Amino acid sequence: MKSHALPAGVTERLDAGATIYLALRQHFEMTLEFASEYAGIAPERLWEIEGGVEPTEEEREALAIAYGVDEDVLISL
Q1: C-alpha to C-alpha distance for 17 and 35, rounded to whole angstroms
Q2: Is the pTM of this model over 0.70?
Q3: What is the pLDDT of residues 45-66, one digit of tens each?
Q4: For a designed S-S bond to 46, which of 36, 38, 56, 57 qualifies (C-beta 3.0 to 4.6 A apart)?
Q5: Number of folded domains in the chain?
Q6: Contact yes or no for 24/50 (Cβ under 8 A)
């Protein structure tokens, strides 16, 4: 299994209970609106995903690109 190191700020947010999607967006200091537009996902849908709703494969891929992480990181957490 491939190891993916996450920045300390992300792991701290995860430890505090945030989803990986919210932790990454906050770490990169992106607004919900910017991240959703960049990923091509409606802000309401991104809000749901950040709250724990499972994204579709296409949404997960778009968010991985938007946050500059390997999609495997999003699948494994």
Answers
A1: 20
A2: yes
A3: 999 999 999 999 999 999 999 9
A4: 36
A5: 1
A6: no
- Which structural domain, as residue segments, surrounds residue 20? 8-76
Which residue in this structure is represented by tokens 């992106």? Answer: 30
Element (DSSP H or E) covering residue 34 = helix 32-39
Task: Indicate the length of the chain as a whole number.
Answer: 77
- Kindly report, residue by residue over 14-45, the tens digit of the pLDDT: 999 999 999 999 999 999 999 999 999 999 99
1 inside domain: no
The first and second tokens of residue 28, run together, are 């990169």
CB 48 within 8 A of CB 3: no
Retrieve residue 48's tokens: 């749901």
